[in-house]
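[recover] target loaded
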């Protein structure tokens, strides 16, 4: 979700000293951190290039150097056509269609291809790698389209559009966001288009970089939203006169799921010193236990946390990879392989879409309880000022429900689908790019669902006056009021308030307001 805040400052990121981290990917992709090449990496790049050049005139076929590609790999390419082979590969594979992909995704994709090139396993020249870094640091983002990748043989079309720009062809967005010819943008940045040599075209397009970049961005954003989900749950439990006894550490220790314990600890901190909670902490309280959507918040959000951690491990392994075909091995062989298959990344992306939908679903259920007179324990129907004349938050919940329904559709896995391509040579593909594209929509939808819950819970807490909320939840209420959202009263145009709440969720304001009283939440 473009725009989600990060706590890390965009210091320069050095490539070639080891695997990139998720935070480094976010810093470059979203916050324009500069990329610096480690000099030691260039030594290995030069060494592997010598190996490729030693094969350039070889009469023996070497895939990607002296043969065609995919189903055309049986065609032996004469020496005089081998550089043309690389140019033709990029031009023909830059075949994307549909809307433009977001700038942060393109930058992540470029960074991750640079990272693989810097391993020295692809056989590109140092000049080609340096030019790619120069294009990224100049803020030039090639125009990449929504459709074109099957998530196997790499994210071919998206990466080809980037390689095309490196050749000075096609369209890009310059640092100001203007759509211009690639040659024009390169010239303005003082860069010279690259004339590809043996193996380089293939090396530039054969990786899982697009889907991996989007996985890294989603993991970062979901970790932020999980904290907001705990804040929203605490506000709802408090506002609906629920109990925080069920979040006790010893209860959660009986089921040692790590994410569950983290979520419960967050909710306990957030509800500390609530006068609303204290008001019904008496023996006469008829409530035996709360509904699942309140009581089981840590179990659901905790399961999401653990799934995100699993996805982060998958991302970490992929960030440590050198994905290309063929590769130059450490002992100098040039070998074909199948490491470009995106299945491991695709599975993680699909798994995240499932848990994102479920986290949104439980949030919507808590919101709905606030609006139902039979279940909200003394609050007006729909939190309306004059029910019947006013509708309150009735349709805000409709908006939530519509988004949750969409998230359930987006949770259908892309990775179970495979369409053969390249005359059946590439007869099983991952669809990882498609999994990543739908996950981005899911993460954005989750942020909007949580925003409606925070907005509704804030209004519910205010309607409990003169009882006061916990300092942390009260601070969130005040942050919304300061932005002119969630104030009880007669009906008014609600869409701007929902948008405001969404902005405060994604820019970190909601989290910061709570943490000013709780300290860091996990």
């Amino acid at each position: 979700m473009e725009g989600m805040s990060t706590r890390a400052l965009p210091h320069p990121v050095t490539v070639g000293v080891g695997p990139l981290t998720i935070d480094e990917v976010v810093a470059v992709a979203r916050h324009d951190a500069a990329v610096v090449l480690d000099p030691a990496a260039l030594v290995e790049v030069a060494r592997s290039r010598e190996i490729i050049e030693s094969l350039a005139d070889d009469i023996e076929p070497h895939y990607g150097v002296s043969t065609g590609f995919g189903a055309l790999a049986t065609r032996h390419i004469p020496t005089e056509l081998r550089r043309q082979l690389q140019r033709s590969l990029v031009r023909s594979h830059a075949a994307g269609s549909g809307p433009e992909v977001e700038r942060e995704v393109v930058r992540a994709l470029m960074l991750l291809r640079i990272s693989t090139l810097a391993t020295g396993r692809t056989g590109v020249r140092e000049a080609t790698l340096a030019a790619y870094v120069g294009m990224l640091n100049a803020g030039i983002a090639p125009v990449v389209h929504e459709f074109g990748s099957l998530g196997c043989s790499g994210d071919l079309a998206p990466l080809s559009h980037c390689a095309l720009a490196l050749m000075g062809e096609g369209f890009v967005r310059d640092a100001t966001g203007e759509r211009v010819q690639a040659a024009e943008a390169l010239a303005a940045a003082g860069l010279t288009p690259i004339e590809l040599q043996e193996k380089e075209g293939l090396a530039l397009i054969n990786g899982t970089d697009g889907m991996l970049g989007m996985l890294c961005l989603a993991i970062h954003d979901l970790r932020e939203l999980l904290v907001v989900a705990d804040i929203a749950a605490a506000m709802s439990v408090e506002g609906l006169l629920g109990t925080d006894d069920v979040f006790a550490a010893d209860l959660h220790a009986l089921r040692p799921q790590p994410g569950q314990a983290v979520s419960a600890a967050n909710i306990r901190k957030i509800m500390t010193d609530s006068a609303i909670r204290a008001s019904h902490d008496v023996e006469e309280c008829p409530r035996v236990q709360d509904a699942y959507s309140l009581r089981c918040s840590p179990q659901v959000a905790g399961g999401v946390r653990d799934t995100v951690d699993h996805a982060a491990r998958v991302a970490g392994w992929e960030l440590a990879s050198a994905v290309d075909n063929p590769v130059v091995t450490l002992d100098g062989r040039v070998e074909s392989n199948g490491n470009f298959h995106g299945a491991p990344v695709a599975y993680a992306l699909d798994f995240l879409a499932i848990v994102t939908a479920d986290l949104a679903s439980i949030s919507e259920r808590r919101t709905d309880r606030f609006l139902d007179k039979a279940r909200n324990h003394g609050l007006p129907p729909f939190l309306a000022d004059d029910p019947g004349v006013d509708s309150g938050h009735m349709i805000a919940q409709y908006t939530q429900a519509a988004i949750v329904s969409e998230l359930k559709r987006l949770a259908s896995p892309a990775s179970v689908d495979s369409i053969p391509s390249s005359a059946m040579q590439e007869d099983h593909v991952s669809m990882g790019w498609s999994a990543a594209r739908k996950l981005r929509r899911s993460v954005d939808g989750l942020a909007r669902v949580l925003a409606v819950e925070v907005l509704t819970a804030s209004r519910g807490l205010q309607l409990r006056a003169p009882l006061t909320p916990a300092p942390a939840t009260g601070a969130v209420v005040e942050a919304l009021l300061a932005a002119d959202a969630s104030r009880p009263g007669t009906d008014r145009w609600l869409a701007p308030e929902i948008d405001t709440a969404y902005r405060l969720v994604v820019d970190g304001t909601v989290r910061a307001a709570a943490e000013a009283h709780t300290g860091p939440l996990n």
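[recover] notes: The two ends are 20 Å apart (CA to CA).
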